[in-house]
Structure formats: structure tokens, C-alpha cells
Design a protein that fits this description.
The chain is built from 4 helices and 4 strands, in the order E-E-H-H-H-E-E-H. It has 107 residues and is an alpha+beta fold.
Amino acid sequence: GRKKPETQLLIAGIDAHIYIRQDKITLAQLEQMGELAGNYENLFSKRAQFYKERGLKNKTLTEEDYKALILEHYTFLSRPVFIIKNEIFIGNSQPNILKLMKTLENV
């Protein structure tokens, strides 16, 4: 079957998996990610099906909008998300994954 979408948080050497289909992202988790990412837009996936369905690409979204949408539905979060020693890695682009792998070698 299909692999479950997950957000993996690695905090202070503790490996924690959060399966965001079952366990919604908490406000505290999202605020931590937003702080590390610089803003909520950096965490937001514009590829989400609901992004197109709701016509959001034609609207000007605020930071509060991005935050609320990510809390509302997990597909608005760019995945995967890794947090390692207060550094955040968002999404599955090749440069991001290579940077993540290099960081993991030094953990």
C-alpha cells in the first residue's frame, strides 16, 4: 500500500515520528516549526489539492492564514519536516534532502 505521510521530528537526539493523518499537528509543534522556518509560508505546501480547490492561489494569504490552514489539514504542510538540533529541513527537494543527509552524518 501507500506509505503514510509523516512528519518526523528529531529533537535533541530523540527520534519521534508523528503520523499527521492520525495525530493532528499541535499548535505548539507548528509554532516551533514556524519559528525555526522563519515563517509559516515556508512550511506551507502550495501543491496541496485543497490549495487549488479553494482558489487560494488567487488570494493574498497572511501568516495567520498559513498557520490556520496547516492546523486545519495536514496536506497544507510541506512534507517531510525534520528538526535536528534546532535546524529545520522542509520538503523533499533534492538539495534539502542532501543537506539533511549531511547534517545527519554529524549527529
